Structure formats: C-alpha cells, structure tokens
Amino acid sequence: MDFKELTKIAGKLEDVFAVWGFGGGWAIDGTVGTVTRPHDDVDICILREDLEEWREVWPDANWFKMVDGREVPMKEGEVPAETVHKLHVRDGADFYELVLLETKGEDWIYRDDARVKMPIEEVFVAGPERLPFLNPAVALLQKSKNIRDKDVKDFKAVLPFLSAFESEWLMLALKVVYGEHIWMTALKETKHGL
C-alpha cells in the first residue's frame, strides 16, 4: 500500500465538509513524505461530533462499532457510547475504519487524559499529494501507551521531521500523562526538544 491508495480513498471523500485525516502509521509517513514500513490498514481519524455528517457520506453502508475487538452492528441513527473509539464501515466492496476523536470546544482532547489537548486546527496537517493526516505528535501520543515494535520504528522515523511545536507539545503531553516516558530522552536531544 502506498500514497496512491490513500489518494484513491481521499478522492471518494472529497465532498466531505468535516475535517479528517489519515492516522496511525500513515500519519507518520505523511510527515516523513515516504512509506517507511508496511501498513496493515488505513485509519481515518474523524471528530466524534461530526459523526452524523459521516453517516450521510455512506447512507446505505453497513456500520459497525468495535466492542472488545469485535464488530457489533449499529442501528440507524445510533450514537455510539463514549467508550467506543473505532467504527467499521462496509459500503459495497469498500471498507473504512474510522477512529473517533474527542473534542471540547475548539480543542481536541486526548481520551486517556483530558488535561492534554490541542487546537483542532492543529490536529490535522497536509502531507504528500496534499493528503490530510493526523498531526504526528498526536499519532505518537496515541502510540505511547502500549508501545509495539512498529511504534518504536514510527517514532524513530518521524523524530527528525517533527516541528518545534510538535516536539514541544509531545514532550509536555508525555510529561502530563506519564511523568516520565522512554521517548522523552530522544525528544530532549533533538534540536526542538525542551
């Protein structure tokens, strides 16, 4: 899978008014500007508050909420509980995985610690082919909880590409959430680190 595949997906969503971006490892690759590792899936990050608009994008699709790692069919007009963070949409042969992002006012709120936030206007960034991506600092924060090998690879790949704002924001977010975190040393050593 490469950026051409993401361009095809984005093309089907060009009429969506709501803000959104590709998340997970793709947010990292969107910042780096090249595919750094294989990807198993494509996460589309959306604001929970925009879910009704997304329902209009695929009115005839089958919608599922992910509960304990399994798909549970959603009823028409159902608003998923705040404990539901992922949705699957099956529209004919097309499959989409939506990641619901929490907001409060004009800010995105980290679901694991509401003290951590970022202005919504900073949460999504433009990448290659003008594709929308989740801010890499947000993507890394989401990956910081249960670090897997691919998360370590993502962190190392994107570290030199983080802006001063992204580095400093991530450093502070990690400090708020964990006090200390294994990635903080590398962030401090970068030219942008605190």
Name its key features.
alpha+beta; Beta Polymerase, domain 2; 8-stranded mixed beta sheet; two-stranded antiparallel sheet; globular
Distance between the termini: 36 Å
Kindly provide the name of the CATH class of the domain at 3-135. Answer: Alpha Beta
Mean residue pLDDT: 94
Biggest sheet character: 8 strands, mixed
Low-confidence stretches: none
At the third CATH level, what is the topology name of the domain at 3-135? Beta Polymerase, domain 2
Percent in helix: 25-40%
- Write the H/E string, N to C: HEHEHEEEEEEHEEHHHH
Shape: globular
Question: Taking Cα atoms only, what radius of gyration do you get, to the nearest Å?
Answer: 17 Å
Structural class label = alpha+beta
Number of helices, where a helix is a run of at least 4 consecutive DSSP H or I residues? 8
CATH architecture of the domain at 3-135: 2-Layer Sandwich
Strand percentage lies at: 15-25%
Q: What is the strand tally?
A: 10
What does this 3D model show about the protein?
The chain has a domain at 3-135: Beta Polymerase, domain 2, CATH 3.30.460.40. It has eight helices and ten strands. The chain has helices at residues 3-12, 25-32, 51-57, 120-123, 136-143, 149-158, 164-178, 184-189, and strands at 20-22, 43-47, 62-67, 70-73, 86-91, 94-104, 107-109, 117-119, 124-126, 132-134. The strands form two sheets. Strands 1, 2, 3, 4, 5, 6, 7 and 8 form an eight-stranded mixed beta sheet that branches. The relative contact order is 0.15.
